[in-house]
Amino acid sequence: MSIHDTVARLSDTARTRLEALARRMDAEELTWDEFHALATTEAARRSSAASSLAVLAVAAELSRLTGRPRATSTPRPEFDLEEHAYDAITEQTGTQSFGLDPVAAMGIAGAAIVMAAYQSTTNRAMRDQGVSFYRRQVEHDACEICLDMADIVLPTTHQQWHHKGCRCVAVPVSENGADQ
Fold first, then answer.
1. What pTM was estimated for this model as a whole?
2. pLDDT tens digits, residue range 61-96?
3. Of 68, 77, 107, 160, which one's alpha carbon is 20 to 30 angstroms from that of 86?
4. Contact (CB, 8 A) for 75 and 121
């Protein structure tokens, strides 16, 4: 199973669980406060797993690039996972799309929250490991924009751009830019 597969599974799980919570709220099985608390907790849990995966992925890729084992850094995204999940759920529930289809809106939000945690932690882990440059690794069904950006090497001082639903990941190009 590839990193893409694992991140996609985490993202899909968040999507499915947040959709189920939205359905329960829609059926009046949950109050607004219960829904919000449970959705935030679920998104934060999946984000934490994605964050840990990102740190492992960076260490594994650096081990492959350098030919020597690398220790993992501490998984620290650029933001607080729980606070980010709370804010993202709050923001999404205030959108027009949530008013039209809360189940779909929560599914999209869940997947996006998890990917944001993965991508932010990947960027931080690369900088913590002394990586200067990265490239975008795309999925087989990536959009044209992401495909166009796949071969561009960027400094880790720039966060990878992504769109909602994007499952592209940043991978280190070299340690300390040695082959640049």
1. 0.85
2. 888 888 888 888 776 777 888 999 999 999 999 999
3. 160
4. yes
